[in-house]
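A further point concerns the way the authors explain their paired sequence and structure data. An entry of this sort, consisting of the sequence and the corresponding backbone structure tokens, reads as follows:
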Amino acid sequence: MYRLLTLTLFLLLSFTATLSAQERIPAIKGSVYDTAVNRGMAYATVSIVNAKDSTLISFVRADSSGNFKIPSLSKGKYLLSASYVGYVPLWKEIEMPEGGHLDMGRMIMTDLTHAGDVTVTARRPPVTINNDTVEFNAENFKTAPNAVVEDMLKKMPGMTVDPDGTVRVNGQRINRVLVNGKEFFTGDPKLATRNLDADAIDKVQLFDKKSDRAQFTGVDDGQSEKTLNLKLKKDRNNALFGRVTAGAGTKERYDGQTNINKFNGDQQLSFLGMANNTNRQGFTLSDVLNFSGDLSRGLRSGGGGITIRNVGGEDNGLPVTGLGQNQQGVARTFAGGVNYNNNWNQKTDLNTSGMMSDISLNTDRSTNRQNLAGNGGFNYQSNSNTTRNSKQQRWNAAIDQKIDSFAAIKFTPLITAQQNDSRTHNSFLSTDNNNVKLNEGFTDSRTHSEALNMGGTVLYRQRTNKKGRTISATLTANYNDSKQNGDLNTKNTYYNAGVFLKDSIINQKNTRNAVTRNFGLNVAYTEPIGKRSLLEATAFYNTNTGESDRRTYDYNSGSGKYDQENLLLTNDFSNRYNYGGGSLNLRSNQPKFTFSGGATMQATRLESINNTNNNTIRQSFTDVLPNASFQYRFATSRSLSLNMNTSVTQPSTSQLQPIKDISDPLNTYTGNPNLKRSYMQSVSLNYFSANTYTQRNFFAFINVAKTNNAIVNSDQVINGIRTSMPVNANGQMFIFGNASYGFAVKKLRSRFELGMGTNYTKTISFLNGQQNNIENTSISPSFTWSFSKENVLDLQASARLNISKAKYSLQPQFGTNYLQQTYNMDATAYLPFGFILNNTFNYTVNSGRADGFNIQVPFWNASLAKGFLKGKRAEVKLSVFDLLNKNQGINRSANQNYIEDTRYNVLQRYFLLGFTYRLNKAASSRPNVVIRSFSAGG
């Protein structure tokens, strides 16, 4: 652990030293000046574009006196632009000599109110900075025909796009993407960046979006998120536009997608649709968590809810958008959605969307699991096939109503309906370390489940004439009704020293009905203290109630029916979990630093009733949860922050009730009524530095968390049969660190990213009555190189190592070291006659795993596209997936119970011929015009 911390701190110091390297002699210098008031234009934006095609080369911001320096520039002809809000944009033609330097002297700007002798032109400054908003004009970032917004963002300074579509600016993740300032399919920013055409965008604005409460009250609550706003071209604000794509290929592969938008001023209507069997899914991670129940189980962070364990212990297995070739299994997807935005009288703002999806997934898995039990342990091998069909219908809305200039109310309802059918067949064999049989058998399970979730949040905000004095109230309510029925058929054959002992057969049907309800109210009041500080007081109350009724019936060979109730697997639970309290926090916003600190007092009461045997468990706790944060701003985009937090996690009903779950005879589970709630303390240190103009950024953070009374497993393992019960343990720890440094080398048309991730976890379990301390350590260095030459070649290459080590105090002989190497390349070449060739290559090397799982996987995709018709509205593309036909799926996991290697089926080589057509039916509109001046200056 200490070596890990030392390495992280060393990287932090090394990268910081690199950032402090001596500045190069500027290629161009000068000053932006206003002669009318005889002063320099503080923080004016100066940009350089290519004279030939107007693509942005570089931009900087002048200092407080209007002076600017541009670090480096290759030989050639350029246009230099100076812009400032409220002034006439200034353009100058320059020619840069080889290895030379230019002094532009004073560049005179004119206030728009005094502009007289001006020329009207269509040229706008490529970059405009207004306070904390950076605005890029899209015409300065050339993209190929039929490119989407994501392709354009890759060309903007400081912006990168991960393989899964996540957009980052100077290393920071973009959490929200707006279209003309409005939500576009709330919750998934990739729906905008991967569906809207690049040529529909007029401007891209980058800013930190404050919370709804802070925007209205004007009081900074410290909550903000990086946001992109895509401003459409004027002809698209009253237009029908979008695209339709259809493709068919070998092995009966097909892929269709459509995106149609009808915008009319503030009224926006968008439709998305997809149908494919190429593993392009419509589920986001939040959808998966919501369906599996993990999202609602988040209530356990504040207390207990009813938790239903899956029959057979299978994971949910729903495919998630963006998993690429490593998606487990092969999926068929139908999905569609509608998004609508409008506002009336500048007082009512409406955003609503509805989505539907239907996904069928087929997964084959081969597993080699080394179970940790005493000094010997045992091995488990299995082969399984799972077919799953998941359907979802979701509707959500946000209605923001301004009552008057001092009050507003926002209502955000959400309704989700889901249906899931799955069937799994699993055959298995367990042996000891001498390859002697312990048990073998098979499991067949079938499950049908349905769930309806309805909820909503009402936020009321009130401000007063006194700045900083506000009151707000948040009311939340949620209702979930889920039903499940299934069959379970298993056969387990047990051996003693390799000699047949007995057979155990299960043949049963089960049903489960569960209802949960949640209601919460939070009221916050802020009072200013001086000019830069405020005191916030909150009061809150939350209540959760639920019932779960499970019935299990064994097969009766006498009657031929499932009419024998299995009392060990039948239970009827009801529970109530309430917590309430208040908090007091002080927040101070100073010119150079921000500080906040306070504490929350929370009283908790949990009651869990087993209606089957009238067993009642009651627990109550009172906790004081302190918190503090400190952020120091060295400059606009360079800061250091320290955060300290505490939280509690209540045990769930299934963890508390002493009911034995024997649905899987090899892995049984019993609750523990003596469980206590866990208490976690965490500290994080974060340093961020970015220079948008030189395209350098450095980011480093470390997070340390320690948990007392952590809820862990205590296992009894005898002859390959595991019985688990949750218990409390102290000393669980988690440390995570990451550092990255990015910089551009403009003469090489390149950008480089260096990164290092470190991870250390110490978990505790109990095995046959003995404590087992488990330590997992991983180090992940990475390197990325991006190269771009307009209309010739776009290239990105990366390498990543993941070095992992696991140690077990009870079984030191099971300690493992394994390494995964991943190399990637993505190259797009723009060929003569309008052809576009794309190649993506991924090479993965695994070592240190079980025999048969140390595989090397070269994965190559390629496509050739040709645009035609007016404006290249149509495109034909021939694609090949897994050109070498070597794609394989493999995964390793190590936890407190076992080390497991899994191989699973993935998509393999197929060819696809696709056709894309872009729609663009726009109303007539005048072209954009701005005022341009060619004042000589200096």
